[in-house]
Design brief:
This protein is an alpha+beta fold. It is 39% helix and 21% strand. Strand 2 and strand 3 form a beta hairpin. Keywords: Ribonucleoprotein, Ribosomal protein, RNA-binding, rRNA-binding.
Length: 119
């Protein structure tokens, strides 16, 4: 049976997440999801099973609704870094999911680093 794109994506996402669980030393997880139209990110506390902070390009106050480009990802990365600081989080593991670390995903990570979040 041939693997579909979706099946390969899910395998890749589980592989990345399992590696993070092995090396996780109680730090939060910065989980990214990218769709064709938007990009969103969550800061997740896996011990408590709760989302501490989140940001998305769908938020109207960011002014990037419907823009799926590097500029929108950069803005979302800066916002999540700011919200993480408010929540008292300074370090996190970057969970890219099944997405490759380039383009929008990389721009979001770089913006979060510039905002003061240690990834």
């Amino acid at each position: 049976m041939a693997n579909s794109k979706r099946t390969l994506f899910l395998k890749r996402r589980l592989r990345v997440r399992n590696k993070l669980r092995k090396v996780n030393a109680g730090r939060m997880r910065l989980s990214v999801h990218r769709s064709n139209k938007n990009i969103s990110v969550q800061l997740i506390d896996d011990v408590a099973g709760k989302t501490v902070a989140s940001a998305s390009s769908m938020e109207k106050d960011l002014g990037v609704v419907g823009q799926n480009n590097i500029a929108a990802a950069t803005k979302v990365g800066a916002v999540i870094a700011e919200r993480a600081k408010k929540a008292g989080v300074e370090e996190a593991y970057f969970d890219r999911g099944g997405f490759l670390f380039h383009g929008k995903v990389k721009a979001l990570a770089d913006a979060a680093r510039e905002g003061g979040l240690k990834i």
